[in-house]
Design goal:
elongated, 2 helices, alpha+beta, three-stranded antiparallel beta sheet
């Protein structure tokens, strides 16, 4: 038995979306997690985590004792497209592959 969208139920689609969003979040924020962990958990470290949106750009900065340890930025539109685009395409492919219900023909009422 191979991979077939035709056999998927709505729960399979939802699980695929959750898996996609989890992997996307880990890939996007994963490199910062070590820095965030060090800044928030170490008792002898003083630092901060700043996130913000300005001019349509999302920025995340991790600083430790005055210096930036990790910084990234991305346009908000790109983030939204990565968040919604692939799940929407998967949904459309799932809709296209679903078996069609047979057309029910009912003759017009007789007079």
């Amino acid at each position: 038995m191979g991979f077939s969208l035709r056999r998927w139920r709505p729960r399979h689609l939802l699980l695929a979306w959750v898996a996609y969003w989890t992997v996307a979040l880990v890939v996007a924020v994963g490199p910062a997690l070590a820095s965030i962990w060090r800044v928030t958990r170490s008792p002898d470290t003083h630092g901060s985590i700043n996130a913000g949106v300005g001019d349509g750009v999302f920025t995340l900065t991790v600083t430790e004792q005055g210096g930036a340890v990790w910084q990234t930025s991305a346009p908000v539109m790109s983030i939204l497209l990565w968040f919604a685009g692939p799940p929407l395409l998967l949904f459309l492919a799932w809709l296209a592959m679903r078996p069609r219900a047979p057309a029910v023909f009912s003759p017009p009422p007789q007079r």
